Each structure stands twice: as structure tokens, then as C-alpha cells.
Amino acid sequence: MNIKKPLNALFAAVIGAGLLLTGTANAQKYPDKPITLVVPFAAGGPTDTIARLIAVPMGKSLGQTVVVENVAGAGGTIASAKVAKSKPDGYTIYIHHMGMATAQALYDKLPYDPMKDFEYIGQVADVPMVLLGRKNLPPNNFKELEAYIRTNKEKVTMANAGPGAVSQLCGLIFQSRLGVRVTTVPYKGTGPALTDLVGGQVDILCDQTTQTIPFIKEGKVKVYGVTTPKRLSALPNVPSLDEQGLKGFDVKVWHGVYAPLGTPKPVLEKINAALKKALSDPEIKARLDSSNIDIVPLAKQNGDSLKAHLDAEINRWGPIIRKANIPD
Ligand code: MLT
């Protein structure tokens, strides 16, 4: 009789049980050192702002500092690839917006699979966008902007945060609807892009409301429309792009928190509880309300909901992006 086989199986089972116990013990101790929250865009932009807002209360709940790390570039895909390959121990977590869904249709090949390489912790917030211009750009309203772009075409410069960024998606849907192409100026995030718009170095930018409302109210930038069909309570006099002729224009940016695939379930549960607590913080709600940002309902602040939403959004945006023939 060959006793090697049963012995090997026994050996494997003992090792497996040992690893499981170590994993559980580690999960019980978790967290015993600072946690890194990766942000796929530059500091000072919309994603970074939401990350820094939730990092502090999440750190308090978890009893460890949550350190924000900006891994900017390539529309967020560099950070996604990095997180997908990070150690799944709960010390690397990730916040990204709907670029997690749209990048799939914008790149021929991604070095990660958004549906397979991550654990899903919960949805966070939904953010509308605004189409902005530098303050001395000649057009004063959307109709004038449209005419100006038709006349000046590639002389018009439009900032974005690279393929996979929502500023790029919004800008390219806009150009596709107008049937005119402008010159794209890529940045590592819309934080630096907005700085250049205010400084007059670029002409137009489609950006989230997270930072932009004070600049609009102070007249530091021009605003040509909001990207949701309904007007925003913070900007009641700004018409939507939909009501100004771009029927069906509807871009609202959702966000989710992720971890690398294989992060232990008890660890994910602790992070999720900290996320939920942060999202119920009245100070965070007040800051987000002032930017017309909606925290998602409790029923969406979980991994199953995030994964289902991501899947639906990959299926929603893929055909729209391919039909718009979006090259950059
Ligand atoms: C950012 O945080 O810089 C933005 O979310 C980038 C973008 O997607 O436009």
C-alpha cells in the first residue's frame, strides 16, 4: 500500500489549518499598525478630499491612523493595478470612483480585473459634475460655448485626469455629443487641473462639485451646465446640460472602497464597520452637503452592493464609451 498519499494529504491539512488559525489570529489583532488608503488621483482633488474626510473617523474607529497615499497617473489605473497586487492583509485599502467600471472599455488591456482582483467593502457617495471654463473665456453661456467650440475646435483646450478619469469621460461624451473635438490636456487629477483653469492656463474642464462650488460662486471660473438632468440645490441658477440641448446627459460619479483579493473576511468586516461609522458622522455629511454630494444610503454601504453596482456600471458604460468612439 502506498502510504505517501494519505500522509501528504494529512500534512497539507495540518499546514492549511495552521495557516487558517494564523489568519484568524492576525484578523483578531487587526489593526496593529497604520492602514494605507490609496487614492488614484493627485492630492487636493475630489477623490483625495473624500478619502481624507473619511480617513480620520475611520482611523478613530479602528484605533489606528489611516494614511492617505496618492498613487496618481493613467486615469487611476496605476493605483488600481498596485492595489490589486498588494498584500491582502487589510493594511492596504483603496477608494476609487466609477473609473473602476469605465476603464475597462477605455483600455485595450488592463493589468487587473475590477471584478476579480478585489474585495468590495462598500459604496460611499455620489457626486455631480459641472462643466467649467476659465473666467476670461469669451462664451458666457452654454449656447455661446457650443458656437465657440465649433469655430475654434482644436484651439480650445480641455483639461482632464487621463483615460479612466471621470473628467475625461464627461469631456469626451460632451465632445461626442457636439461632434467636435478639442485639444485634451491631461493632468494627474482634477485638483491640479482646476488650479490651472483658475489660473487661465486651460480653457474648459468637467469636474466634480467637491471643490468647484466656491470657485463658481466667487466668479473665479465660468460654469456652463451641470451633468445631472436635475439642477443642483447648491447652484439653482445653473441649468443642466440636458435642459440646454444635450438630452439624456447624465453623469454622476459614484465611489467605492476596496481591498486586495484575499483580505480576510473578519478584517473586511472591521473596515466596513469603520466606513459606515464615518459616513454617519454629521460633520462629514455637512461638508459633503455643501458640495451637493450625497452619501449613499446605509443599504449600499456594503461589499455586495458595491460589487453588484460595479458590475452593472461596467455593463452600462461599456457600450456608451464604445459608441462614442472615445480614443483619449
Ligand atoms: C480626481 O480626484 O482628481 C478626480 O476624481 C479625477 C477624475 O476622475 O476626473
- Report how far apart the termini are: 65 Å
Structural class: alpha/beta
- Annotation, overall tally of beta strands: 10
Question: What's the rounded overall pLDDT mean?
Answer: 92
Helical fraction equals 40-55%
Low-confidence stretches: 1-7, 9-21
Task: Provide keyphrases for this structure.
11 helices, ten-stranded mixed β-sheet, alpha/beta
Structural description of this entry:
The chain is of the alpha/beta class and 328 residues long. Helix content is 45%, strand content 19%. The chain contains eleven helices and ten strands. It has helices at residues 4-29, 46-62, 77-84, 99-106, 142-152, 166-178, 190-198, 209-217, 265-279, 282-289, 303-324, and strands at residues 35-39, 66-70, 92-97, 118-134, 157-160, 183-186, 204-208, 221-226, 252-260, 294-295. Strands 1, 2, 3, 4, 5, 6, 7, 8, 9 and 10 form a ten-stranded mixed beta sheet that branches. Helix 2 (46-62) crosses helix 9 (265-279) and helix 4 packs parallel to helix 11. Residues 1-7 and 9-21 have low confidence and may be disordered. Bound molecules: D-malate.
